[in-house]
Amino acid sequence: MEIQQLGDHSPDKFASLALAPKGRTDPQEGNWRAQEKAIDDWLPINARRNAKWWYSAFHNVTAMVGAGVLSLPYAMSELGWEAGVTVLILSWIITLYTLWQMVEMHEMVPGKRFDRYHELGQHAFGEKLGLWIVVPQQLVVEVGLNIVYMVTGGQSLQKFHDVVCHDCKHIRLTYFIMIFASAHFVLSQLPNFHSISGVSLAAAVMSLCYSTIAWIASASKGRSADVDYHLRATTTPGKVFGFFGALGDVAFAYAGHNVVLEIQATIPSTPDKPSKKPMWKGVIVAYIVVAVCYFPASLVGYWAFGNKVDDNILVTLNKPKWLIALANMMVVVHLLGSYQIYAMPVFDMIETVLVRKFWFTPGLMLRLIARTAYVAFTMFVAITFPFFNELLSFFGGFAFAPTTYFLPCIMWLTVYKPKRFSLSWFTNWACIVIGVLLMILSPIGGLRQIILKIKTYKFYQDYPRND
Prior bond to 320 cis, omega within 30? Predict the structure, then answer.
């Protein structure tokens, strides 16, 4: 969609008129507002508002059930049975509660919708401060996820190749990441959430399938003869740092809050039928699917392999070969959708800045260049630092905990102002404390693991083949 300049007014003229409304005539104001509306209709988040409740369901499943579910058995091996089960259950409950708060706050102001996370932050904390609080953390989550998904997609393709062609020449992980990225150079040109609905639906179905395969295959294999349920590390510092890193792994598994407002923005809303009703219905369905995927995969995987489980449960499983190969390809399909779900808000930010701040003309060429550059960037970082579990631990605590656990609670306390010492007041402050602890502790374990991996990793040479 090409947006031409309206009348005789340049973009700079429109900007000055917007800032100085007293010097603006009615025709000029009409031209400026038409220009703004055309830009809003072109941006990915605002383009379509005709989604149903089931769009919310599979978009949220695609957003949450991703690479994180494959690392949960490994997290259990760092936490142990008691702490592991407790952390999994508490995380499910807390994140469902904070997600409900965000759905409620989407239309907290009559006649206005907060279509983006940072818009809600600006309302709660102020125009400038809200941007500085929310945008950096949201970008770390979304860009970090896209990088991790590049790594995971490449690993799954490599595992598929090794399983179906065991005697073939070993191909480095770098090339599989590039193959996975090549699909995103095409998919990234889909303009908005509505256009990626088919990809997202396929991804949601695949996530349920491969997580089911992971725990059924583990159960079929049975407990290993030498299974050990002691913590993975043998030294006290190793156990402590491993515990911190595992908290980040779990936090990583619940990341849907970073795109929930953008997903809700695609649902129509009227005073009689606000968007929060179908959105919440979809969220409930999504969280049931999350529970069905997360709890069996993490508990059965840990039960079967103990502290010998790999950071990706599908890497640990080798038989039956055809089933493991199929599961890895399901992971690839799912990650194609997950990448796009988290990339879409980033595309929206990039295109908003290019059009509104730098006055580029909205259109196909702008999207082609901007989105291709972004995919190339995430591919480059993934190739350079393919540290799967370590990235989960670091990003999980550094940014996932704030945007998932306590930022929604702070905004709720700021905007709704529940009565002091009420149940809502206590619940939100408890979530804030837990989120702050996650943000402080889990990056320590993840960063330590990244440093150790870098010391032993030879760049441009992949990990040894796991036969």
Answer: yes
